[in-house]
Amino acid sequence: MGCNGELSASASALSVLILILLFPLRGGIKIKSKITIKSLPPVLSPAMLSLAEARSIIEQHVQPLEPQAVPLAAARGRVLREDALAPDDLPAFDRSAMDGYAIDAKDASPKFRVVMEVQAGQVPTRRLHPGECARIFTGAPIPEGASQVIMQEDVERDGEWMTVRERDTKMWIRYRGEDARKGELLLAAGARLQAGELSLLAQLGMVRPRVGRAPRVLHFATGNEIVDPSLTPAHGQIRDSNSTLIAALLADAGVQLMAQNRCGDDLDDLVGAIRQHTAESWDCLLISGGASVGDYDFGARALRELGFTIHFPQMNIRPGKPLIFATRERQIAFVIPGNPVSHFVTFQSAIRLALERIEGALSAWKSAKIELAADLLAKPNERETLWPVHVGVQDGALRATPLAWQSSGDLRGLLGANALVPIAPGTTGAKRGALVDCVLLGPLA
Ligand SMILES: Nc1nc2c(c(=O)[nH]1)N[C@H]1C(S)=C(S)[C@@H](COP(=O)(O)OP(=O)(O)OC[C@H]3O[C@@H](n4cnc5c(N)ncnc54)[C@H](O)[C@@H]3O)O[C@H]1N2
Ligand code: MOO
């Protein structure tokens, strides 16, 4: 099958058409057909980087794109690319913290004449003199001559007179500058803008904040065996679950999925389909499958044909060893090992870092010690294992439940997955009740 257009319910049957027209190609021999046979060794050297080394290479090679100023309403979920400073003292004026009466705290008069009313948003019309008070409401400016607000629950009012029943030691005034001083840093560049951050920007008058551009991603799922999920696979075929997985992971990461296509195991088809998208229209290319060393794994060769430089061909992790990372000027590309659990793990541990870098965000890859709710049955392996777990509240505390993960094709290993437990090469898992490092990935529930 060739590459289809945007993903839809269409899926073509596997077509095998062999024309006997041989010519040599780097890394193999190509039959001009739907089949390419590689007879030479793989193009890539099998250097085995640790995850930490691979992440450091990604950090070196991915630079943030120019920020853009957007209206506040369009900034939710984006990364702030400038510091937010207090433009003035906050609050900017002394204001009442309660509904009540403003007096001079030192004024010992037995009763006070109410000489004016100050509502929030109004300016006091005069200053207070001894024996005078102002009716005042929460948020209203404190008049000159006043230094305390008495809550209305603690006074008696009789016409134009007010008597304080009970003097409070509290002043009930929010003083100018008590929250922040003019010029103080309130939110540093790199923060992701959620409800609290956005409302702070509104308070500061930053109505067009400079934010990181959402990375624009192209995704190609490759494989002659994959068919649209709406179809019944013939013997030897499987439904394409990776496209759905990637679309959901990208949406969670606030990334723009520009186009998603399904493509057979054909180098020319893949390269041709990618070339249909102009270089200016995307920032990151994701190719699912074809990351390994099989005769029909074209990921690395497609990237080379497109002028990409490959920075690493694999990492020493499981699942997801054959993750390929490449760049072409400001554009980045990953070939993701086809197995679905490998997709999840490599997206979270490496691809997400690159997308965060493009936006200028701080990395969300952080771990916390969390108690295991059940045994984590990992056998020692030469690779670092990243085991999907579900972290949630159990008996009033956060606990991590290891997910059943038979193989990297077993999607039950991703149900509820919101954290990964790194297990060092050569070490085993841990028993129920043990505290383990959990890298937190998403909402905990
Ligand atoms: N000789 C070696 N073989 C393999 C190695 C190796 O080091 N030497 N590594 C293995 C590892 S680890 C992985 S992971 C896979 C990665 O393979 P590819 O990225 O080339 O992916 P495929 O071979 O195309 O697929 C692997 C597996 O995943 C299924 N798949 C593919 N696409 C989808 C999709 N869109 N939705 C659902 N499932 C998909 C595919 O059918 C295969 O079963 O290589 C090993 N081999
Ligand atoms: O590393 Mo592969 O991703 O084991 O299945």
Please provide a written account of the structure:
This is Molybdopterin molybdenumtransferase. Keywords: Magnesium, Metal-binding, Molybdenum, Molybdenum cofactor biosynthesis, Transferase. Pathway: Cofactor biosynthesis; molybdopterin biosynthesis. Its EC number is 2.10.1.1. Belongs to the MoeA family. The protein is an alpha+beta fold and 445 residues long. It has five domains: 1-25 and 33-45, no CATH class; 51-64 and 213-359, 3-Layer(aba) Sandwich (Molybdenum Cofactor Biosythetic Enzyme, Chain A), CATH 3.40.980; 68-89 and 179-211, Molybdopterin biosynthesis moea protein, domain 2 (Alpha-Beta Complex), CATH 3.90.105; 95-174, Molybdopterin biosynthesis moea protein, domain 3 (Molybdopterin biosynthesis moeA protein, domain 3, Beta Complex); 367-440, Beta-clip. It is built from six helices and 30 strands. It has helices at residues 51-61, 195-204, 242-252, 267-275, 299-305, 340-359, and strands spanning 3-6, 18-25, 28-33, 36-37, 68-69, 84-85, 95-96, 100-103, 112-118, 132-136, 148-151, 155-158, 161-164, 173-174, 185-187, 210-211, 216-222, 226-227, 238-239, 256-263, 284-288, 309-312, 317-318, 324-328, 331-336, 367-372, 384-394, 397-402, 419-423, 435-440. The strands form eight sheets. Strands 1-20-17-21-25-24-22 form a seven-stranded mixed beta sheet, sandwiched between helices. Strands 11-8-10-9-13-12 form a six-stranded mixed beta sheet, with no helix packed on it. Strand 27 and strand 28 (397-402) form a beta hairpin. Helix 1 (51-61) packs parallel to helix 6, helix 3 (242-252) runs parallel beside helix 6 and helix 4 (267-275) packs across helix 5. It is elongated and about 95 Å long. The two termini are 42 Å apart. The structure holds ligand LQZAQKY5 and molybdate ion.
